[in-house]
Request: fold
Amino acid sequence: MVFANLQQLWQMDGHGPYVWFSFATSAIVLCALVFESRRRGRNARALAAAAARRRRAENQF
Amino acid sequence: MANWQWFHKWGSPRWFYQFSGRLLPWLAIPALLLLVGGCVWGLAFVPADFKQGNSFRIIYIHVPAAAVAMGGYMLMATAAAVHLIWRMKLAAIVMKSAAPIGAALTFLALLTGAVWGKPTWGTWWVWDARITSVLILFFLYLGLIALHQAFENRDAAARACAVLAIVGAVNIPIIYWSVEWWYSLHQPASIKFVGESTIHPTMLRPLMATLSGMYLFFGWVLLLFVRAEIIEREKNTRWVQALVSGK
Reply:
């Protein structure tokens, strides 16, 4: 590590707030993309399952 | 005729859904390893830049986000052209799915660029050619999302979005060459396809890790969006109903 300790890593000679904010925001946005894609997948599967149930019910009567 | 079989296969949502399912772990795991590893490497194990100090470390997220936002747009424009020429359903799905990911990455590029600009240039924002053309890219992505939602007819929406995506592709070379064509606070490209890169190898290696990680991440999330859209569009077909019923 190029920093002597964790405090120096956190402060980065005064640039810490800029650097850590950028990385934290990026992590949040990337995680949000993954969650959103999975949410869409779950919703689509739920819609398809409902359509399958309807078709089965129609076939019974 | 046999040479075109692969093309028809790629046009089948069912085949693509099954194929992409096998691809997902090969994209997700390397993407996360490269992104996390590259960020830790760049944050803690690379010496500070002699001019910019530690603020330069934002490069490890800013450049990959910007590069993949541009690459994602080119992919979207290519899918748009394929959809317009061959009426391929899957191309329309890829085009629609790429837009929110591209918008999010362009937003990240703009935000991290502004945050990097403050300690480096003394300002959050300047209306220079590079930043303005990236802002236009962001609006193009948002415009595509809005345009798709404005139509009730899915085919009409895909055709209109395809035209907008293709026309908007002219912005990509403008973004890339803007720092050469106009005076800008941005430095010219440090990583060159032709000729020697002007960034030191100790700084370049983690950047290559996060850059390739971001491309893989884009591929992974794009496949997740595309698979969700395929299921939604094909929900009344037998293969999807068998899939969700676990048969």
